[in-house]
Amino acid sequence: GVQTCALPIFDSLGRLWVTTSIEYPFAVPTNSPGRDRIMIFEDFGPDGRARKSTQFAGGLNIPIGVYPFHSRNADGTATWKAVAWSIPNIWLFEDLDGDGRSDRREALYAGFDSSRDTHGNQASFRRGFDGWLYCTHGYNNDSHVAGRDGNTVHLNSGNTYRIRLDGTRIEHYTHEIGRATSELQSHHDLV
C-alpha cells in the first residue's frame, strides 16, 4: 500500500507518478538505504482506482519532488526518466529497458541541507517553457549547491531555484518564503 504520499503528478500518457514515504519525518542516515519509493499508477477504472501499479524507484529517503519525462538519448533511443529529490541529492532515474522500473540512477545535484527540517525539502518540480525545471527549497535549511559548470547557489530558508535536467547548472530564482511560493505558482500557472 501507499504510506505518506506527496506531490502526485501526471505524465503525458496519463499515468500518475507518486512519491511515497515510510521514513517521513525521520530521515535515515545518508549512508543507509531508505524504504521510500516512486510509484506509477495507471489504467484507471470507472471507480478511479488504478488497475496497475509499478515501483519505478525504491531505496529512497523522503522523496518529495518528482518530475517524470520522456526524452530521446544521444543514441536515438527514447526512455522514461524522472528527476526526483531523495535525501541528500536531486537524482536522475532512468528506465533503460521499458519495463516501467528505473535501471539507472545518477546524482545530479548535491549539497542540499536537510539537517534542520525534513518537512520543507526540495519540492514542487515544474518544467518551464524555457526548458528549465523550477523547484522550491524548503524553510529552515541552509544549502550550498553547484551545477557541473561550477555555478553555485546559496539557498537559505524558503527559496526557489531552477535546474537543468542534465545536472549542468543551477540558478537562484527567488529569495523569500512568501515570494518563492507565489512566484513559482505564477510561473506554474503559465506552464
Secondary structure layout:
Layout (H helix, E strand, L loop, with lengths): L3 E7 L5 E6 L14 E9 L5 E11 L5 E7 L5 E9 L2 E7 L8 E6 L13 E5 L5 E5 L4 E5 L5 E5 L2 E5 L6 E5 L2 H14 L1
Antiparallel strand pairs: 1-2, 2-3, 3-4, 5-6, 6-7, 7-8, 9-10, 10-13, 11-12, 13-14
Tell me the strand order in the biggest sheet: 1-2-3-4
Specify the overall morphology: globular
Largest β-sheet summary: 4 strands, antiparallel
What is the mean pLDDT?
A: 89
Distance between the termini: 32 Å
Question: What would you say this structure looks like, in words?
Answer:
- The chain has one helix at residues 177-190, and strands at 4-10, 16-21, 36-44, 50-60, 66-72, 78-86, 89-95, 104-109, 123-127, 133-137, 142-146, 152-156, 159-163, 170-174.
- The protein is mainly beta and 191 residues long.
- The strands form four sheets. It has a four-stranded antiparallel sheet with strand order 1-2-3-4, with no helix packed on it.
- The two termini are 32 Å apart.
- The mean pLDDT is 89.
Notable features of this structure?
single chain; 191 residues; mainly beta; four-stranded antiparallel beta sheet
Condensed summary:
With 191 residues, the chain is mostly beta strands.
